[in-house]
Amino acid sequence: MQTACPAQDRPQLIEANTPAFVRTSLAMFAGGFATFAMLYATQPVLPKLAAEFAVAPAKVSLSVSLGTAALAMMLIPASVLSDRIGRRWVMRISLALATLAAAGSAIVTDFTQMLVLRMLLGAVLAGLPASALAYLGEEVAPGTLGRSVGLYIGGNALGGMSGRFLVAWLTDLSSWRIAFAATGVLGLIATVVFWLCLPESRHFRTRRGGPVQVLRNITQLFADTGLRSLFVIGFLLMGTFTSLYNYLGFRLHLPPFSLGQTAIGGVFLLYLVGSFSSAWTGQLVDRLGRRQVLWVMILGCGIGLMVTLADNLAAVISGVAIFTFGYFGAHTTASGWVSRRAGDRRALATAVYLTGYYLGGSVIGTLSGFAWQHDTWPGVATAIGLCVVLALIGALRLRHLLPIGNGVPATSAA
């Protein structure tokens, strides 16, 4: 049961361009940075790991997929814990434990140990994404929420880029073990920043409920047409993005490109495009509304995907950049929409969205490996393209979604 608090006694929400906003943005950016840097550290060196441990591409991709699957499975338990002990503590502990697991990946002696540690990393890391959007939805003013969400997801993008490039570069320079240890150092730095900067939760109210109540609340969330569609879109979006970057390295390693490890890792610098897209889209959503932005961003993913089919390196890089821009813009829009539409069940709704989101990365990312084995890049592009079309259909239907009955205009968050 949520404790009521008279409006006049409630502290003010965080507004843009205030010291609290700067601290919140820095902490969330650091948290998002560490999340993607650690979770996807194996992705740029999948061909190297496949060769060293003598496993097939579809199997080596499990070093990514099992981590995201474990994260997905722990999101709802983490959100329940967040409702009970507070968003801030759950996020702090999550980052600290994930840092230990990331560093431990550097000292494995066989591929099974690698998979176990990547699963543990995903499981303990779940507390941050399960709580971050709920924290922002509670603490940040509605007119500033889109910008805050954009900065958090922008941190995801920059962390994904920096972590992947660092791992690829250090692997070429020394070994993948040194590279994985470096991601642990990145996680430690981000954890310290997060602990020191994130403001206290001033609007959090403890919510308690057993498994039956949680299941009842999940059923109610799925009864909402808009939330149900957004959950599916999140599943498809992350599946396409993970598939693209999982097998892009294999493609660029083969003729006619024949790129080395550092050059392949350099492709992940395109995450800068995603970081810009997240921040820019967040502001665009605040002006135009989510239903006007989401479908355009997904359409951009489809256009970028088609460009990657060319056997020209410049065209492939351009296509990946367009896809990345559209993906991060779509994810920023959809995730913020879920948090806003769910009302006082935003923590659970965010957890359900992210459960589908990361399961999409795990399931579709792994199944795309079989498409690669069947028809290399054209097979992967076909599988991704189907998911993009389904997500686009869902986004177009959301343009006609009725707003929730809380006085929020249809052109904004509802």
Tell me what the structure shows.
The two termini are 24 Å apart. The protein has 414 residues and is an all-alpha fold. The protein has helices spanning 19-39, 46-53, 57-60, 62-85, 87-104, 111-125, 127-139, 142-173, 176-197, 211-223, 225-253, 261-266, 271-288, 290-307, 313-341, 346-398. The longest helix is centred in the C-terminal third of the chain and has 53 residues, at 346-398. It is globular and about 60 Å long. It has 16 helices and no strands. It has one domain (13-398): Growth Hormone, Chain: A (Up-down Bundle), CATH 1.20.1250.20. Residues 1-8 and 406-413 have low confidence and may be disordered. The relative contact order is 0.15.
Offer a few descriptive terms.
414 residues, mainly alpha, Growth Hormone, Chain: A, 16 helices, 78% helix, globular
The topology string of helices and strands comes to HHHHHHHHHHHHHHHH
From the coordinates shown, what is the CATH architecture?
Up-down Bundle
Low-pLDDT ranges: 1-8, 406-413
Q: Going by CATH, what is the homologous superfamily? A: MFS general substrate transporter like domains
Largest sheet: none
Number of helices: 16
Radius of gyration: 20 Å
Strand proportion, as a percent range, falls in under 5%
How many strand elements?
A: 0
- Classified by CATH, the class is Mainly Alpha
- Described by the principal axes of the CA atoms, the overall outline is globular
Tell me the CATH topology. Answer: Growth Hormone, Chain: A
Helix content: over 70%
Broad structural category: mainly alpha
Instruction: Provide the domain count.
Output: 1
Task: Report how far apart the termini are.
Answer: 24 Å
Q: Give average pLDDT, whole number.
A: 86
